[in-house]
Amino acid sequence: MSDAQRKQIMTLSQFIIERERSFPYASGELSRLLRDISLASRLINREVSKAGLVDILGITGKSNVHGEQVKKLDDFAHREMISALSMGGECSILGSEEEKDIIRVASTSGKYIVLFDPLDGSSNIDVNVSLGTIFSIYRRSSESTDLEHQRKEALRKGLKQVAAGYVLYGSSTMLVYTTGRGVNGFTLDTSIGEYLLSHPDMQIPKRGKYYSTNQGYYSLYEQGMQDYLQYLQGEDEVTHRPYSLRYIGTLVADIHRTLLYGGIFMYPATRTAPKGKLRLMYECNPMALIIEQAGGLASDGRNRILELEPRELHERVPLFIGSEHDVLDAQSFLAGNGPYQGTENGS
Ligand code: AHG
Ligand code: MN
Ligand code: MN
Prior knowledge:
By secondary structure, the protein is an alpha+beta fold. It has nine helices and 15 strands.
């Protein structure tokens, strides 16, 4: 490896320290917080990569607050995130998809709150399809140890996040995060156990040619959504239609592709699930911060995700997220107005 190539290699830790100056609370806290999350993700990655070999596949027999079957890998990832974040000492409040209430960490001196989806894409665990972990970081606004007060602290608008990110356990394992100053992606080099900067300053295209939604629910969608899907499947060179449909069923994988290639991911409201399926606090908010920081948009179809006022830890919201011009088109169809007229055609 030449000196020039050697020079280019930057680990996640080196990157954070170098960028620390731009983080408002630059006293090494973010480094330690991301170090803890990175550790948990490497332990989860180790289990994910050998899940077929050890007794970690299948279900636990338990169900979570959402009434969903908890898979062994969900449970494992949940416990690894809690242990890494508790031991790290930077957090005093945690929130997990797999726990009904907030989790109060013994060392209450931690200044941060971390909300997370420990394992995203559970339905794909047993069939060897990409999975993910999603995290959302807030800074505490007090040192109160009162439970009610702490519950309220964990429910802040997505705009107040100080950092957000995801880990994608795919053909390679990647960690992508933002502290509100751009989006950067790191690929895990398992031979040295380090995340190395591989995707600096990620930007989402203004328009893509992929749409991503569970087309199986078509008959359950509202009219505007059905009209938009018909539009995307129509033929028109200027607006690069028909789009291609890609749907993995793991939010992290579908969003990562959307971030790199452009286009739109949608998990809309349906007649049977009027709030959609995805959770605001630890799926939609962190993904919205990342995509907005990369130059895209994220809404519930009408309102900006990051400005939604949360009411409870596990509340669900519809999600339309991705390239600016594609999300504007979707919102315009949902309002009954056809394609958005404000952007250059097919841009
Ligand atoms: P989780 O495994 O954390 O519950 O998340 C699953 C979510 C998300 O990853 C994905 O976008 C969505 O479920 C897929 O839902 P459908 O199977 O209804 O399409
Ligand atoms: Mn999920
Ligand atoms: Mn999950």
